[in-house]
User: What shape does this take?
Amino acid sequence: MPDRDDTALHELAGVEVFRAGTWNGDAYSADDIDAMVAAFGEVGFRPPVKLGHAAAPGAPAYGWVKALRRAGERLIADLADLPGAVFEAIRARASPPPSTTSCATWATAPPTSPATTPRRP
Assistant: This one.
């Protein structure tokens, strides 16, 4: 078995994290995905990769979103700084598919932020 550095961090490009459709009673279109991509470039921080939809403050980050783009009706993320086990689980699809948490729920994006979207309360 080859030696493996368990402390190495990895990048994973092209991970689908969201798709247009109806989620939790809200309809999302390709235009909404475009707004998410635009907001990503303006929000002023890199969103964390979390395990599940962890709502608890201080839940650990298992990597960071490096870039977002739209491909058809899908939101695609490039992820960075993933520990080996998380990288392998996402790559092998051994865990539930990654998904997003709405930027509108992030306290770090103030209502006057240029990263607001029409969906932000």
User: Anything to note?
Assistant: Helices lie at 30-42, 84-91. The CA atoms of residues 30 and 71 lie 9 Å apart.
